[in-house]
Amino acid sequence: MCIFLSFLFLFPLVLIIFKNLLPSKRKLPPGPTGLPIIGNLHQLQGLLHSDLHKLSLEHGPVMLLRFGVVPMVVFSSKEAAKEALKTYDLETCDRPKLVANGLFTHNFKDIGFTQYGDFWREMKKLVGLEFFSPQKQKSFRYVREEEGDLLVKKISKSAQRQTLVDLRKALYSFTAGIIFRLAFGQDFHDCDFIDIDRVEELVKETETNVCALAFTDFFPTGLGWLFDRISGQHSRLSKAFANQSNFFQHVIDEHLKVGQPQDHLDLVSAMLDMINRPTKLGSFKITSDHLKAMMSDVVLAGVNAGVTTMTWMMTELTRHPRVMKKLQEEIRSTLGSNRERITEEDLEKVEYLKLVIKETFRLHPPAPLLLPRQTMADIEIQGYYIPKNAMIKINTYTIGRDPKCWTNPEEFIPERFLNSSINYKGQHFELLPFGAGRRMCPGMGLGINMLELGFLNILYFFDWSLPEGMTIEDIDMEEAGDLNIAKKVPLELIPSLHQA
Ligand code: HEM
């Protein structure tokens, strides 16, 4: 009897041990054959999203690669993305602990790169209340409208002189102008320690380095560590981090100066207030590291994604004069003639603008692989086994071009969204510019708001033409970037004041 009972008790245990010892029968996703030690790293030599696009067309919508010792699974179909972000939302919402991400976020004290858990939840709630909430955003309305007016004023000067406008620079000044005032309480158009070119340089330097893959991420500690030091990667990261940190310290110091004008309570003021409170908020005490980590998130996520989308949108409009004409006619007839300024009451009114925005997101999602994620458990997607701790990439670039989802996918046709319920809010997995699930972008409302306001301004007041001798066929569509994939060659156009 005793032997029988022991057998009953031990049998399941023996089964579990055996199951773990036997080679896995579970089906791993297909993928390109890698080399010993480095895995598939040698096959990725261009822009990552573009290399993964080509490889996924060859190997299928669920593809396994190896970066050194780390398995990386790429999901490139609407169905696979839906399973990953909806069915397994919880299991896929972690972020990998990458060296550069840790450095720039003061050891993951931010929202975007920190691992999933209580800290992320509490930080998101805090920053949500102080920055992303609809009430807070409503109170910042005048800032966005003023920056819209300034954009029109600057372009008007070029229109009078008939000189070229670099659209990225103009839209950068508009977007960064808004984000810096909302988040940092800093008007850099009127600032003695930084100007727009330096802001752009700093954000670019941070983005390049935040996204830089360190050998330490993919090779066992000692080897990767050594390689990062010999290759200069470690010192490059440290230098960029010091530049960013000094700049943020400058902004903080300005806030701490007595008598600084405070026209509204920006994110830095709100977080400084939390730092000075004697009690903890939730389970941790906010420090200046949390503040700097959040400043880094907001600058990276808030400025670049918006500017990148706006530049692509203006590029596609210039390449498609029919769409540009239709959009301008709809904007002007909806808003009426002789308007002196655009306000946020005008947003939402122009139906065709929404279609153009969706079509731009489909072909040019600013972060084509979203942010890196990591599985927290073994899961099965589209019949393939995905192990715990695998890095995952949601390939929205390939999904946006998938002929199974879109007719004539390479063509820019905003009308495809007419009478279609597909939107970008994370429920339609063929269009995911803001991601989906728990880690979806919390800045979507603000991002869309800036996009619409910017475009109503530049398309209501101005007509745009290419420089003398240039045709739409000459517009270069080459991409560049690290996290946000932007247009490489500047888009330069000549504005003319529209005569009603
Ligand atoms: C057109 C504008 C924007 C686009 C296309 C965009 C896109 C994205 C994407 C793709 C992600 C990753 C989602 C994922 O991993 O599933 C993300 C995350 C994030 N975005 Fe945005 N974003 C935009 C504007 C903004 C703005 C204006 C802010 C704030 C000022 C912002 C703050 C964030 C933050 C904090 C995260 C991290 C969320 C988390 O990990 O929990 N974004 N965004």
TrEMBL record:
Keywords: Heme, Iron, Membrane, Metal-binding, Monooxygenase, Oxidoreductase, Signal, Transmembrane, Transmembrane helix. Transmembrane segments: none annotated. Residues 1-16 form the signal peptide. The keyword Membrane applies. Its main location: membrane. It is found in: Membrane. GO terms for molecular function: heme binding; iron ion binding; monooxygenase activity; oxidoreductase activity, acting on paired donors, with incorporation or reduction of molecular oxygen. This is Cytochrome P450.
